[in-house]
Design a protein that fits this description.
By secondary structure, the protein is α+β, with helices and mostly antiparallel strands. It contains two helices and four strands; from the N terminus they run ααββββ. Strands 1-2-3-4 form a four-stranded antiparallel sheet, with helices on one face.
Length: 116
Amino acid sequence: MTILRNLSICAILAALSACTVWPVGEDPYSLKTRRDANFVLEAVQSYHQQKGAFPPDLQTLVPAYLPSLPEGPALQYNSNDGSLAYHYIPSWPQLQWVWCNSVGDTTNWRCEKKMT
């Protein structure tokens, strides 16, 4: 009886551990997207250093600064300050939009939950 109860408890704990809740913007999908976006930001910074202005759009970076733009959520680019943003809905159980923005043309990111 004790063995059966212990197995039941282990099964419940294993099921609950599968329901990991990540801090906002720290789930595996966002971290991969952020890594890809950081390569774009580095290309934006290189362009800015060489040309003295931010590129007019991200496609301008291809192929001289980037082989291609990353796949995944669309990156929104602000040519005034070189910043990037993206948004997505994390996987279950966190089904609320997350919006992430770079701080200017740096690889520092701020992510927050939003209703839309």
